[in-house]
Structure formats: structure tokens, C-alpha cells
Amino acid sequence: MKHLPLNRAFTLLEPGPVLLITTHDGTRSNIMTLTWSMVLDFSASFAITTGPWNYSYTALTKTKECVISLPTVDMIDTVVGIGTCSGEDTDKFDKFALTPLKAAHVRAPLIKECLANIECRLVDRIDRHNILILEGLEAYFDTSRKEQRTLHAVGDGTFIVDGRKIDRKEMMQSKLPEGL
Known about the structure:
The chain is of the alpha+beta class. It has one domain (6-175): Pnp Oxidase, Chain A. The chain is 14% helix and 32% strand. It has helices spanning 55-63, 76-83, 92-95, 169-172; strands at 19-24, 29-34, 37-39, 45-49, 65-70, 100-101, 110-111, 116-126, 131-141, 151-153, 159-161. A seven-stranded antiparallel β-sheet has the order 2-1-5-8-9-4-3. The protein has a two-stranded antiparallel ribbon with strand order 6-7. Strand 10 and strand 11 form a beta hairpin.
């Protein structure tokens, strides 16, 4: 094995799919690209990492609500574009031709072009690590969408795309918690 600089070790533990997070600050909506998220348990609880350096952070922590949107591989240039400009001076819905849809429980919009959307409420913060804990309120999945492969950020400007699925549901059935 070859030595890997410790400051690059994070690239080995890709945490989950690249997400788009929408917020609404009371005046307008915004979108940010997020590459670190985690499911906390078998319910709709999630952790994301962001902080004051990100324009959307203020709206999210002030309103305590957002939408997690799941883009697919065909949206990679949009995802990167959203992540490389600021909502402070850019209407990202307009610039990237995305369609905001009204959510049922939060002011932040769903993104029509995404495979899935989860309306969330901010329920906790771990400031030491810039972690926000979100509770899902409502989830949507576009079954008519042909492209369903998601993106995973390596952390250095490269991405991995979901590929072939391997089914071991039957083998794992006896090991899952009751009700899943």
C-alpha cells in the first residue's frame, strides 16, 4: 500500500449522495449543493454539515426548515454550478432553470427536476462540528423519472455514480429491525 496524506483520508469515506438543499429566508428561496450528509437511524432523521460560510446557513438556522432534494447524474453540471456560485447575488432557480414546487410543511420549495425531495425541520445543532440535525416531515419520490442514478462526491472535484444494484433483501430480512 502507498501512503495517503491524512488530510486526504476523508476522500475514502464518501458519506452519501450529493444533495441540493433549498431554503427560504422569508423573502426568497435559495439552493445550495451539499456533499456531506448522514442518515441517523431507521427513521427520517438526517445530519448535514454546513456553516456560517455558506449563504443558505443563515436562512436554514433562522427559519429552522429546508428541503433535501436528491439530484441525479444527468444534473451534474447543475449541481456543480449551484455549488460554485452564491445565492447572495444569484437566483439559482432562474440561473439553472429549476422549477420550485410548493412544499406542504415548510416555506422552502421542492425541486421538480430532482428524483426525490424531503421536507425537513431543524431540530438540533452540534456547533463544534458544524452539524445540523434535521427531522423529515414529508417525502416525495418521482417514479416516472427515467434517470435514477445518484452522484457521490469524492471531495476533490471528482464524483462516483451509482451503478448496478445487487439484491440481498431476502438474505437480510431476518436481520432488519421489526417493521422495516
